[in-house]
Design brief:
Length: 347
C-alpha cells in the first residue's frame, strides 16, 4: 500500500492528475460532473511548496473539514521544463490567486484549483467591448459554447419537460419570480443557439441581456470598478517576464499586488504611490515571471480574472486533455452518464 501511494503521488505530481468539474463556470465547453485528465507535462510540473500534507489529498481530509496539510514548513517552488508555455485561447487548470468565496489564507499550492480559458497572455493588451474580446486591438473568436445570462419572461411558468425540450438543463436556469400574474420570469445562462431557439418559442414573451456580475462582486482593479463592467472592460496590459514599468499611483494600482505577493521578494512596502523593496525605494520595476488573464466560458456565471486579477505563472498547474467520465446528476438510469462525452478532447 505504501509503495502504491508513493507511485500514485509521484505520477500525480509529475505527469497527470484527474479533476472533477464542480461548477458551471465553463459550460458548455465543460459540464458539471465531468472528470477530466490534466497533463502536468505540458507546462512542466512544480516542486511541492507544502511538504507536510496527506498524500492524494488537497486542502481537507476526505469527507471532513479537517485540513489535510500543515503549513509549518514552506519550501521554495520550482518548475521543471515543460513541452511549451500556456497558449492564448486554451483551457488551463491553476491555483486561484484569490478565492473570493473562501478567503482562507493558504499556501499557494493549497489554494483552490480552478479551470478557466486563458484569453490573454503576458505582453497582450486586453479589452472587452460589448462582450467581445479584443487582444492588441484585434477581435478574437469566442468559444462556440460561450454563454451569457438573460432575463426570460414566459407566458406561463414552464414545466421541467418544456425546459428540457428547449435544450436547457436544470443548471442553466432558475425561476426569478412572476413578472405579472400567471407569467414566469427566469434567469437563464444561454448559448447563442439557445437564445435563437427561445426567440422562436411560442411560450416566450421576451429575452433581455441580464445584469452583469460586477453588481455583486467588485471588479479588478479596484480603481476602475465604477467605470468598467464585465461587458466593457479594459484596456489592460498583461505583464510578462522582463516587462518594466514606472512606479506611480496608477501602475501600483494595477500591478502593486503582483509585486507584493507573487514576485518572491522578502520585503515589499507600498505607500503613497511609492514602492520599497528590501528597504530600498525603486522608481522602475521589472517583472520576474509571466502572468495570464483567465475567463470562464459561462461569462456571467464565472468569478475569474475580471474580479481577482492576473494569474501568475507560478500558479499554473496543467493543461486539460480529455474528459475521462461524465456524470449527469439530473439524469435517470443510463442517462446519469453522458456517454458522448467520455474520452472527448478538451480545447
Amino acid at each position: 500500500m505504501v509503495f502504491a501511494v508513493v507511485v500514485a503521488s509521484l505520477f500525480r505530481w509529475s505527469m497527470a492528475e484527474a479533476f472533477v468539474i464542480p461548477t458551471g463556470s465553463m459550460e458548455n465547453s465543460l459540464l458539471v460532473g465531468d472528470y477530466i485528465l490534466v497533463s502536468k507535462v505540458h507546462y512542466g510540473p512544480r516542486t511541492p511548496q507544502t511538504p507536510l500534507q496527506i498524500p492524494l489529498s488537497h486542502q481537507k481530509i476526505w469527507g471532513t473539514d479537517i485540513p489535510s496539510y500543515l503549513d509549518w514548513i514552506q519550501l521554495p517552488s520550482y518548475r521543471f521544463p515543460g513541452l511549451r508555455n500556456v497558449k492564448r485561447g486554451e483551457s488551463v487548470v491553476f491555483n486561484t490567486p484569490k478565492d473570493l468565496l473562501d478567503p482562507t489564507d493558504r499556501p499557494r499550492d493549497m489554494m483552490t484549483f480552478l479551470i478557466k480559458r486563458c484569453v490573454a497572455i503576458g505582453g497582450d493588451t486586453l479589452e472587452i467591448r460589448n462582450r467581445d474580446i479584443f487582444i492588441n486591438g484585434d477581435q478574437t473568436a469566442s468559444p462556440e459554447a460561450i454563454k451569457f445570462q438573460y432575463n426570460v419572461i414566459t407566458k406561463f411558468p414552464l414545466q421541467l419537460h418544456q425546459l428540457n425540450n428547449l435544450g436547457l438543463q436544470p443548471d442553466d436556469f432558475f425561476l426569478a419570480g412572476n413578472a405579472q400574474e400567471s407569467t414566469g420570469e427566469y434567469r437563464m445562462f444561454l448559448t447563442h443557439r439557445q437564445v435563437a431557439k427561445l426567440e422562436n418559442a411560442a411560450a416566450v414573451i421576451s429575452i433581455d441581456r441580464s445584469t452583469d456580475l460586477s453588481q455583486s462582486f467588485p471588479l479588478f482593479p479596484a480603481g476602475m470598478d465604477e467605470s468598467w463592467d464585465t461587458d466593457n472592460y479594459g484596456p489592460l496590459a498583461i505583464p510578462y517576464s522582463g516587462m518594466s514599468i514606472q512606479i506611480n499611483l496608477q501602475t501600483l494600482d494595477l500591478y502593486g499586488e503582483l509585486i507584493e505577493k507573487y514576485e518572491n521578494h522578502k520585503q515589499v512596502k507600498i505607500q503613497d504611490g511609492k514602492l520599497q523593496i528590501d528597504g530600498k525605494e525603486v522608481n522602475k520595476y521589472t517583472f520576474r515571471q509571466d502572468y495570464y488573464f483567465m475567463m470562464g466560458d459561462n461569462r456571467d456565471n464565472s468569478l475569474d480574472s475580471r474580479f481577482w486579477g492576473f494569474v501568475p505563472d507560478s500558479h499554473i498547474v496543467g493543461k486539460p486533455l480529455m474528459v475521462l467520465f461524465s456524470k449527469n446528476e439530473h439524469g435517470k438510469g443510463l442517462e446519469r452518464i453522458r456517454w458522448n462525452r467520455i474520452f472527448s478532447c478538451i480545447d
